[in-house]
Amino acid sequence: MTSRRPSHSLRFIIVGGSIAGLSCAYALREVGHQVLVLEQSDGTYRSHGGIRSPPNMTRLLNYWGLGPALAKVSMKGSQFTFKDGESGDTMGLLILHEKLMKALQAEFLFIQHGDLHTLFYDLAVKNGVLFRYESKVTTIDPWAGTVTLQTGAKFSADVIVGADGYKSVVRPIVVGPQALRGIKDRRVSVNLTIPTELMRQDEDLAPLAESSEWTLWVGDNCCIHALLVSSKREYGMVIHLPFPLEGVDEHWNEHISIDDLAQRFENYEPRIRKLLKLCSTITPTLHVIHEPFDNWVHESGKVVLVGEAAHPLMPNGSHNAALAVEDAMTLSTLFALPLTPAQTPLLLSAYEELRQARCAATQASERQKRDFVCLPHGPEQRARDEGFRQARKRALLDWDEADEDFLRETWEEYIELFGFDAREAVEDWWTKWGGAMMRKGDIGGGHGEVEMGAGGVGGGERRVQAPTYEVSVMRDGVMV
Ligand SMILES: Cc1cc2nc3c(=O)[nH]c(=O)nc-3n(C[C@H](O)[C@H](O)[C@H](O)COP(=O)(O)OP(=O)(O)OC[C@H]3O[C@@H](n4cnc5c(N)ncnc54)[C@H](O)[C@@H]3O)c2cc1C
């Protein structure tokens, strides 16, 4: 795809500086816009939890040039292994065959949340994105295009991007009463981290400290899955348990007792019990299931949602970060098109149109897969396990030897998920609608150079004018 530049530089405010916010900030800046990120935290916390970067995400990270940095901190996944939680026997396998991965043109990677956060943060800073930490947004005026912080300071922008996650304050402004409708998930998800140096001292656990597998132990109404992150320094485990679990809220920074957790797994295979004893961090999260929201863009055409704010997924799925990164690629590719500022609402509508069906389908698929590996013991679970065993025999065959029906049955849905290219989706849309939009709009040309904010694209060569976002600030308790 040709790399484009918009004819005008817009001012974006991004509320929230996690994966969705940082990737949007970097990507919008990269195509020539001015970007300010407002983040409520002080920006120093890095989560140790594991993230899967499926090929649809890795492909975009590679496009942004993150490949070499990613190679240093990620692990290439080779297969998904399904084990019986109690006996530890391998029941099922999904091998990421080399030929398949070649066709997908990107790897399935395991990466630590904190490492990905740092990669995006560094890239955004290098490209001149502005950051304000300890800046909790409390109010948004979608028609005026302003956001107000808890401190009272007010900022204005051409576009406000709500990247403020699962409990977004921007969401209700855009979505309306639908934001309040939701049902508590039947399961809670617990994130655990184990230092691999401790695992290497135990002969049963040492092989796991080198393994490129994503291992899933399936049990009664429960599933544990784990993978290596952070250059094999940590083993990131996730447990999906039935709710209620005491002391659990919808946050990523609350902790529960390991002893409470361990006693639930006394009948599990020895490696699970040993792993639980070695945990260094435990973070539980609860999830509220929302039907897909009708609107992601406010009718003012100035406020848009991305990431978990737009499509809250159950925690620790395979596509939480991937969908956020796809959102960022979609938005930035659209905002690189040569349209006028007056056409901003049109671009935001295109973003909504391009993303909603994809995200809804992925949300549903993720939930269905999680429930499948968490079946309570009974006839359905026995049928599932038998299916795993049959499929395992065929999975061990070479890709060329496997029969077509088996490959289609196993891979059709994954290929749909992994093969999606967010840039291509915008290109297809532009091929269809671009001509009409170019005729309708007051396009490019006479508007001259893109005005760059502080830093300029690619590290600060083309500084023209520092962006102005502040409308009013608090000084000595007085609004000025
Ligand atoms: C601290 C943290 C740790 C996480 N760790 C993991 C992990 O280990 N594994 C995993 O799979 N997923 C993790 N997640 C979730 C993961 O980031 C998301 O599922 C996904 O990557 C998409 O993220 P997001 O940026 O849309 O939302 P989030 O990651 O939830 O980020 C939202 C951001 O917005 C900020 N914010 C919220 N409200 C306001 C406000 N009013 N004003 C200003 N800023 C605001 C938050 O502080 C946060 O930084 C974590 C999320 C957070 C916030």
Automatic annotation (TrEMBL):
Keyword Coiled coil applies: no
SUPFAM superfamilies: FAD/NAD(P)-binding domain
A family per Pfam: FAD_binding_3
FAD-binding domain residues: 13-361
GO molecular function term, any single one: monooxygenase activity
Keywords: FAD, Flavoprotein, Monooxygenase, Oxidoreductase
InterPro entries, sorted: FAD-bd, FAD-dep_Monooxygenase_BioMet, FAD/NAD-bd_sf
Domain of life of the source: Eukaryota
Family: Belongs to the paxM FAD-dependent monooxygenase family.
Protein name per the record: FAD-binding domain-containing protein
